[in-house]
Design brief:
Length: 121
């Protein structure tokens, strides 16, 4: 009988699960996934993922971001921002690289700059 071994790649990340809500400022040194609701500000020195059920009402400042759910507010990404087909963003974006899948909704302005111009706070 074959047995599958699952190992953790050593990557540390934080997660807010579906049905949870945070109001305030979140500061994370590693990746952060949102499947619940955040009302406030996220400052992350890694990647922020807003899941399909995720909702952010506020701002994001991070290195990389992947939006699958909903964001109402400004997004500042130093490297790469990916908007999946189910993403819905209302707000202004500043990033180095922007990828948008078909059917993603983005209402706002986008400024694309080099690495030195956009920094997480």
């Amino acid at each position: 009988m074959a047995r599958e071994v699952v190992t953790n790649g050593g990557v540390t990340y934080n997660s807010l699960t579906n049905g949870s809500k945070i109001v305030g400022k979140i500061v994370a040194d590693s990746d952060f996934r949102i499947d619940g609701e955040v009302e406030g500000e996220i400052i992350c020195n890694g990647k922020v993922i807003v899941g399909i059920n995720g909702l952010l009402k506020g701002s994001i400042s991070c290195i990389n971001a992947e939006i699958i759910g909903n964001v109402v507010g400004d997004v500042v990404v130093t490297e790469s921002l990916l908007l999946r087909s189910t993403a819905n963003i209302k707000g202004d974006v500043k990033t180095k690289t922007l990828s948008v899948e078909p059917n993603a909704v983005f209402n706002g302005t986008c400024s694309m700059r080099d690495n030195n111009s956009v920094k997480p706070e």
